[in-house]
Specification:
The complex is a heterodimer of chains A (628) and B (758). Chain A is built from 26 helices and seven strands. Chain A is mostly helical and 628 residues long. In chain A, helix 11 packs across helix 13 and helix 14 runs antiparallel to helix 15. Chain B contains 27 helices and 31 strands. A four-stranded antiparallel β-sheet of chain B has the order 4-5-6-9, with no helix packed on it.
Chain lengths: 628, 758
């Protein structure tokens, strides 16, 4: 009973009273402080109740500092000065020590005084009339819409709106960043929200322009992250714009040079952010996503991977993978298989997409299996370490705080390597695994970093498992959701679509090549050393840079067994969109001229109508093709 | 014992505690005859001390200390008396303590102020003795504060509060209360609803009594245990109550003082009342009985007990229901006879012909005859009951315009709903606090939180001020268009700002002749502005606190204002002091409206009642209870028979003024109803709310459905039909704009106003 009472009101603790007394140099005994505290509480409540009256008579819903001050004034108490703002002041806690404070930023008076752009006053209050309802029926305009207040926006706001949109959609990257940053932090743009939302809803009209699309998505991101904006019903419009970027066959995707996957991935990431941050506003979003996924799965091939962008972007729908993907997979598989096996030139584009689909399914399946395994293993195993040892591949994401993060688990793996993953897992996981294995072969097995235990099962084209010395570096990091497999598809002259056919690969490399394509594995030292060269390589990539900016092509270090990085973004809750990099084992020494370019790879730039010749660079001989 | 108390309580001059003593004693219910000025505080100590000290060892210590003090002060006689009385009264106290009889009440009541007395004495004489008193056994130590400050306190406050002096063992309060609860739960269903009304006032008074006597813990426990049982519509009051845990706080709390000064009114049938009375007397449950006697007014009626629904519809106000007698006075709700104005027929015909051709001759005739044939309404007040200003020529012109417009008026009804135009105030930055339209809908005024009043012309005709005196002297005064010439074209603009207030403007009202504008503000003034010069003419100072609302009489000249000081004032524009002061509300007056015949004003209040006042004699002639939240809008029907009221609870209630009855409840709004307006012919009631909707209600149906038979009228027991949905003709969303004013033009176009609130 007593604590129910406590909960009803905020109470000023005795200590606060003492503290305040001390600050003015008065020592209080506990009794007096307690009495004072109680009195303070009562007075505060009284003042709050009185101030609500001023709010009601001002016909407002929000209690302002002014109201409170009026209440104080009428009870012959000095008003509190310095807080007369219309907006709510940010009240925030300090993490270290339980300290709460009102953010009171310092104002540089000199700067303010010498500023040349003196802000104009508020816009003139005006009255506008519109016929809302004729003869009690017929809405002239949709109910609840925003009044046509364009002309009522202040000049400043209008100018701001024009500048910001121009900056975001314009050429200057730096300017865009500034604009986006401001959009994210500006507290006074609520009136402009409808206009920005309108701009964003223009995605459909620029679906041919990836650059513009991604800029619009950036804008969405900034709007969503702006703490001062209440998105309200506009969130629906924003979500539909983002969904459009994920789901629709964008005009831009016709051109294979366009890295629309990055865009879709980004959009999916954004959607997941909206989903987590504003889920309350978009009720039913989750189900909507599931529905569209299901539709995509049972529909044509073209749309499938897009659904997976969803899948991989949202953390929750692991169950969805199980529920939606798994039953549909076998039916779909033949479809995909046919695409992937078709080597004709005309199929090149589709095939390239097909590989992405493959990769996406693989990741999704991996997550699913891991989840299942985890859910099985958790009750059994007491500690992470124990679980690590017995289920090396199935361990839950060991996500170290710093990137690159393979360190923690890798030493565990050392001892664990070679333990077959599926052995301790009872049905139905093994059943599922077996079924999936039938589709994916070893590439699935390798994703779990399993040892030779699965080897006998590798029914088709399973290359020998990499030796343990290699495995050492392969961390069990499972957080990668969507690998960026786009890299060499269009740049590099295509090699053999299947490594099996490659004639002269060193045994070790050959054996490790295929399965490790999908694992992000590297020794930590390698990870540290690689990014700089990869950036250098990117810088040299010239016109292709922009399109493939998410990919990292490291210069193959001479001695390192790995030469390939797959870069992308880790999505999901834990990683918060952190980038990941995956290195791939080097297939063979760099030798651009050695491999005869495949036919359609030649053609690709032509399809893309790329003006400048695509630079062939060191990594061009690498294939991202998966062994099937 | 009573004799002893009454007699010698005169304070000795050197004794500083005198005022406190007298105050406390005066207000004590145990001392019904305590009006006699006290003569000797020492004697008072001697007589009353023991009762409090009864069966309490710590009290005994106090007693000894007092005796010591008396000895020291060489007041041997008093000491002797005290000694004697102490021994004697101790025995009495013991026997009373177990019996808890009526006598105990008096003794206990008398004891209370004395313990304070004693402690103040002690605090001066022997601090050790004072601290020896344990706090929970006697409130004495904490009472030191009131004793010290008591001298400056307003005596009436103390009198009021002193009624809460100790009347029994606080520990037993929950027992009493739950005992009564058990009893009421066990009675027949038909009585239970009626008797349950007792719970809330009883709960509040018991709680306050505990707080007053500084049983903080007990009070808190009592509150926690039983506040859940109270009706949900009391939750606002309960919230205030729960914050109040100290006796010191009670003094500053006006709400509580009101609760105390006014008796909570309950209407209970005779049968139910007998049941309750019998029960309490059987149990000798004097605590409860005393509270009922002192703080409750039970309005007993003969006949069937009321149902729960009937009770709920009428209860909810701060002080219970209105007494039946309160609504018995005769109200002349009829309209005054319209002055006969000769409508210039020719003129109109000409116009009509110009516009639409010939067949117009009938209408103006009908109209003029219509107004002429209007006979004196039997319910109307005498034409001269309230002196009204004489019509000026311009007024007559306006009346003629009005009639002309009226002929073109759209007949409204469920099938033909009005068109709605919405005036949106843009860039008001949450600052729009009040709106008014002129009757002819040519001007709109807004009051703002930044203390300004702005007037806009909503016709193409711009607002112009009169020329300066110097320029005026140059005008040819005999010219026909002199009225046009005096205007200064240079000042023409679409809107004018009126500066003068020093606080948010909470209410504004145009005069019927459109020459003046009234505004009331937080700065406690009402200002009269000229719409000819756009300057302030008068600042009416009379209110001491923010003025929440003001309105011109439909005939001009008079206006009414009401505010935080819980008083409504009637003013005339040419008097700087109010003509009438209407006092009776227990909380802020939140809205004020004139009756169409200008003989009455209605005031809505935060005490959740509506009162109708007679301007002639200042009497309160109607009290309407039933709202569950502060009332923020009122509207009289054009025929003067009905009143509609809207409150923060989102409900609109309809009242029959003549019978003093609630006749309808319109549910639909989800937030405070800030605007109510009847259409020109009273067929439609429009309501506007914070929930961004305008709703239209079928007023004719709502009023027709009610059959006010004699019985209902006599008892006031109404059963409201649950027909809100049938009456709702339409609900219209605005664009994120709370509706704060509604107005029907003379042709029945509905105008709404509010500030866009993104």
């Amino acid at each position: 009973m007593a604590d129910r009472e406590e909960r009803k009101f905020a109470e000023v603790p005795r200590d606060s009273v003492k503290l305040m007394a001390e600050s003015v140099g008065v020592e209080l005994s506990d009794d007096i402080a307690a009495m004072l505290a109680e009195d303070v509480c009562y007075r505060l409540r009284e003042a709050a109740q009185n101030s609500s009256q001023f709010m009601r008579h001002a016909k407002r819903r929000r209690l302002t500092v002014e109201d409170f001050n009026r209440a104080l004034r009428w009870s012959n108490v000095e008003a509190v000065c310095g807080y007369g703002s219309q907006d709510a002041l940010p009240f925030r806690p300090l993490k270290e020590g339980e300290l709460y404070f009102v953010e009171d930023r310092e104002i540089n008076l000199v700067e303010l005084a010498l500023a040349t752009n003196i802000p104009k006053g508020c816009a003139e209050t005006m009255v506008r009339v519109q016929v809302s309802y004729l003869d009690g029926k017929g809405n002239v305009e949709p109910q609840g819409a925003v009044p046509t207040a364009v002309q009522s926006l202040t000049d400043d706001l209008l100018k701001y709106y024009q500048q910001v949109t121009r900056a975001i959609l314009g050429e200057d990257q730096q300017l865009m960043k500034v604009a986006l940053q401001d959009l994210q932090t500006n507290s006074k743009i609520a009136a402009l929200l409808p206009y920005f939302v309108h701009v964003v809803s223009g995605v459909k009209s620029v679906s041919h322009d990836l650059e513009q699309l991604s800029r619009l998505l950036h804008m969405v991101k900034s709007l969503v992250q702006n703490p001062f904006l209440y998105l309200g019903s506009y969130i629906k419009s924003l979500v539909s714009s983002v969904m459009y970027c994920i789901l629709e066959p964008l005009a831009a995707s016709i051109n294979p040079l366009n890295d629309h996957w990055t865009l879709r991935d980004y959009a999916a990431l954004l959607l997941s952010h909206i989903f987590w941050a504003h889920g309350d506003l978009v009720g039913g979003l989750y189900h909507q996503i599931l529905l569209s996924l299901q539709k995509v799965l049972s529909g044509s091939f073209k749309k499938l991977p897009l659904g997976f962008c969803f899948l991989t972007s949202l953390c929750v729908p692991l169950q969805a993978v199980e529920r939606v993907l798994f039953p549909h997979l076998s039916a779909y598989w033949s479809n995909l298989q046919a695409v992937l096996d078709d080597d004709s030139v005309s199929n090149a584009q589709v095939k390239a997409d097909g590989h992405k689909v493959y990769g996406a399914i693989l990741v999704a399946v991996e997550k699913l299996l891991k989840m299942k395994a985890q859910s099985r293993s958790v009750p059994v195993e007491g500690s992470v370490a124990v679980r690590e040892r017995s289920f090396p591949g199935l361990s839950p994401p060991q996500e170290p705080v710093s990137e690159p993060g393979f360190g923690i688990a890798s030493h565990l793996l050392q001892g664990a390597a070679g333990v077959p993953a599926e052995e301790p897992v009872p049905v139905p996981l093994p059943v599922m695994y077996r079924e999936l294995y039938a589709f994916f072969g070893d590439s699935l097995a390798v994703r779990f970093s399993t040892g030779p235990g699965i080897e006998p099962r590798a029914s088709r084209a399973a290359p020998p498992q990499p030796p343990d010395s290699k495995k050492e570096g392969m961390g069990p990091d499972t957080t990668r959701k969507m690998p960026q497999l786009t890299a060499s598809m269009t740049i590099s002259p295509r090699q053999d679509s299947s490594p099996r056919n490659e004639p002269s690969l060193p045994a070790v490399q050959n054996s490790s090549a295929a399965p490790s394509r999908f694992q992000r594995s590297s020794s930590s030292s390698l990870q540290r050393s690689k990014p700089p060269p990869s950036k250098a390589a990117q810088r040299s990539a010239g016109p292709t840079r922009e399109v493939f900016q998410k990919s990292r092509f490291p210069l193959p270090p001479a001695a390192a067994p790995f030469s390939f990085l797959i870069a992308g973004r880790q999505t999901g809750r834990r990683c918060q969109g952190r980038r990941f990099q995956t290195s791939f084992p080097q297939l063979h020494p760099p030798n651009p001229s050695a491999q005869p370019p495949r036919g359609y790879a030649h053609k690709l730039p032509v399809i893309g109508r790329m003006g400048k010749p695509v630079k062939r660079w060191v990594c061009s001989q690498y294939s991202l093709h998966l062994p099937l | 014992m009573a004799a002893v108390q009454d007699g010698p309580i005169e304070p000795e001059p050197e004794n500083e505690i005198k005022t406190e003593t007298s105050n406390e004693v005066l207000g004590n219910p145990g001392d019904a005859s305590g009006g006699v000025p006290p003569t000797a505080p020492v004697a008072a100590v001697a007589t009353e001390k023991p009762a409090a000290a009864a069966a309490d060892s710590t009290e005994r210590q106090t007693l000894l200390a007092v005796l010591q003090f008396l000895k020291k002060s060489k007041l041997f006689e008093s000491e002797e008396i005290l000694r004697r009385e102490a021994g004697l009264l101790n025995e009495i106290g013991d026997s009373q303590g177990s019996g808890a009889g009526g006598a105990g009440l008096g003794g206990g009541g008398g004891a209370e102020p004395e313990s304070g007395d004693a402690s103040s004495l002690l605090s001066r004489v022997a601090g050790a003795a004072a601290t020896a008193q344990s706090a929970n056994a006697t409130p004495a130590p904490a009472k030191v504060t009131p004793v010290v400050t008591g001298g400056e306190d307003q005596p009436d406050v103390n009198v009021v509060l002193a009624a809460y002096s100790q009347q029994g063992d606080p520990v037993l309060y929950p027992v009493y209360y739950s005992g009564l609860k058990r009893f009421i739960d066990s009675v027949l269903d038909c009585h239970r609803a009626e008797l349950s009304q007792v719970f809330y006032p009883l709960f509040v008074h018991m709680y306050l009594e505990l707080v007053y006597n500084q049983y903080e813990k007990e009070a808190k426990a009592f509150f926690d245990k039983f506040h859940g049982d109270q009706e949900c519509y009391y939750k606002d009051d309960l919230r205030i109550l729960s914050g109040l845990t100290k006796k010191e706080h009670m003094k500053g709390n006006e709400t509580l003082l009101d609760f105390r000064t006014s008796k909570f009114v309950l209407r209970i049938s005779r049968d139910s009342y007998q049941l309750l009375k019998r029960h309490l007397q059987e149990r000798q449950n004097n605590q409860i009985w005393n509270i009922i006697q002192e703080h409750l007014y039970i309005d007993i009626f003969d006949g069937m007990p009321r149902s729960k629904g009937q009770i709920d519809s009428m209860s909810g106000s701060l002080a219970g229901e209105a007494k039946r007698e309160a609504n018995k006075a005769k109200v002349f709700y009829g309209l005054l006879k319209e002055p006969e104005i000769e409508v210039p027929l020719d003129d109109e015909d000409e116009e009509a012909e110009n516009e639409e051709g010939k067949p117009k001759k009938k209408k103006p005739k009908k109209d003029s005859t219509g107004s002429k044939s209007k006979k004196q309404d039997p319910n109307a007040p005498q034409q001269s009951r309230i002196p009204l200003p004489e019509l000026k020529d311009s007024d007559k012109l306006d009346k003629i315009m009005n009639m002309k417009e009226a002929t073109k008026r759209v007949r409204l009804g469920p099938e033909s709903l009005p068109s709605i135009c919405f005036y949106t105030f843009l860039n008001a930055y949450q600052g729009l606090t009040a709106v008014d339209f002129t009757d002819d809908s040519s001007l709109v005024a807004g009051g703002f939180a930044d203390s300004t009043v702005r007037v806009w012309s909503v016709t193409p005709k711009k607002l112009r001020g009169v020329k300066t005196a110097g320029d005026l002297s140059l005008i040819d005064k005999d010219s026909d268009d002199v009225l046009e010439r005096i205007m200064d074209e240079k000042t023409a603009s679409e809107s004018k700002n009126l500066y003068g207030h020093s606080g948010p403007v909470y209410g504004i009202s145009f005069s019927p002749d459109r020459n003046y504008l009234l505004s009331c503000s937080e700065d406690a003034t009402v200002r009269l502005w000229s719409l000819q010069t756009f300057t302030c003419l008068v600042g009416y100072k009379g209110h001491n606190y923010p003025v929440w609302d003001t309105q011109f009489s439909p005939y001009g000249y008079y206006f009414i204002s009401g505010g935080h000081d819980r008083v409504a004032r009637l003013w005339a524009t040419d008097h700087y002091q109010p003509l009438r002061i209407f006092s009776g509300h227990l909380a802020d007056i939140t809205c004020t409206r004139f009756h169409p015949n200008s003989n009455y004003v209605a005031t809505g209040s935060a005490d959740r009642t509506i009162r109708l006042w007679d301007i002639l004699n200042g009497n309160c002639v109607r009290i309407f209870t039933g709202h569950k939240g502060p009332i923020h809008s009122l509207a009289f029907s054009p025929n003067g028979k009905f009143l509609a009221s809207g409150a923060t609870d989102g409900r609109v209630l309809l009242w029959d003024i003549g019978h003093g009855l609630m006749i309808g409840e319109l549910k639909g709004h989800t937030d405070t109803v800030y605007a109510l307006k009847f259409s020109r012919d009273g067929e439609i009631l429009a309501s506007g709310s914070m929930d961004n909707t305008v709703r239209l209600w079928d007023a004719i149906k709502a009023f027709d459905d009610i059959e006010t038979d004699d019985f209902t009228a006599a008892t006031g027991h109404i059963t409201l039909p649950e027909n809100s949905q049938e009456l709702l003709l339409g609900s219209y969303m605005t664009k994120s704009t709370p509706v704060i004013h509604l107005h029907f033009t003379r042709r029945n176009l509905l105008l709404g106003a509010g500030a866009y609130n993104p």
